[in-house]
Amino acid sequence: MKNTRLIYIWMLLIMAAPMISCNPESDDVDPGKVENVVQNAIFESMKEFYYWEDKLPETFNSANFSSNEEVLEALRFKELDRWSYLTTREAFDAAFTGQATGVHGVGLGIDQDENWFVTFVYNDGPAGKDGWKRGWQFLEINGKAISEYKTASGGYNFQLGPNEKGVTNTFKFRLPDGSATTRTIVKDAFQTNSVLHQTVYDIGNKKVGHWVYQSFRATQGLSPTRSREVEDSFNYFIAQNIDELIIDLRLNGGGSVAVTAQILNYIAPSSASGKVMYMDRHNSNKSNFNKTVNFSKTGNLSLNRLIVITSRGSASASELLINCLTPYMDVVLIGDDTYGKPVGSFPLSSFNRTLSANNVELVPITFATANAQNRAEFFDGFPANFKVGDDLTRNWDNREEKRLKAALDYINNGTITGRIMHDYYKPKWEMIDAFEGLQKEFPVY
Q: What is the pTM for the complete model shown?
């Protein structure tokens, strides 16, 4: 999750005191004349901003490393840091506004019997335009049975080619009705959608909103703190006068803290307005960056509790949402334990001229968040209140999909049927495990 106030420094939309550059020496250097200047800039920036700065060495010899990636790997506090990464400014900005490039626009998932399924589809991606749906089972990829892609280590390598526009793959599926279809699609660039599904169900005498939300992303061209999709969804739920809300975050690996706050202000009770939403804390060098963000209620939703569908793929900003609400309302987790990322990042090239001049975006862990009760240490994730296995065979709008059914049953009856919980399984693999760096927060094939 990212501290948007700092992420968008270069966009002149910051609401804070003026920021100074990283250090005078690196600002004045000519990158073409100094050996290993970028590696040194990475170390200097880490010493200034890294949350675990006290774990870094006091001195650094760039001659010992052959790449920027080697430098970051050597500096990363491996006991807790699974997320610090390097990218480019362009890739970072694109990811946080939902601009995908060189992918089919589809998610993959595996069930307890090692059958593979489509887990989600972006509307404007190649797969979405071709009509793919969650619940389609993969039978073959490029003429080879799925089992042939299993590696000696027990994992899978589907060999889908580089993430470049124009790369073609052919897939054979079994559809939910038992028929088969073969589709050939090309990787492309497109705008993603964070809202995968929304509807309202009548359950007893209640109206229940169901919102499948895949990534906390701002809308390109708007303020970096706003998502038009979020506004449209909550205006819909407000107009429907819902009594309960189910948010499905099982595929949500995180994103913008500011968009998370936008959502929180819609969900939180009016009594939370003016009270602490979250606190973030930086290392001792940057204690002046510490801040507390309070709730400011948006709209007139009046919810006594929130049902959240979770998995190990629910990380970062997804967990921030859960953590911020628990002091003020009942939050019930159905599905599986979350990932465990109570820390966040913002990019550092805006603080260092050398990184900026070389188009190196350094995004290390720079802060930790805590809720109003000072709950901050959840590196093992939040445990689900009710363990329910993922139901990969059914699309989002199917009320028999196990996690959705469990949530609706809980709202209607105050309990979940034993059969659903008896069928729980812990997946061997989640999409978040297949990606590193920036893509770990926004995984897609």
A: 0.91
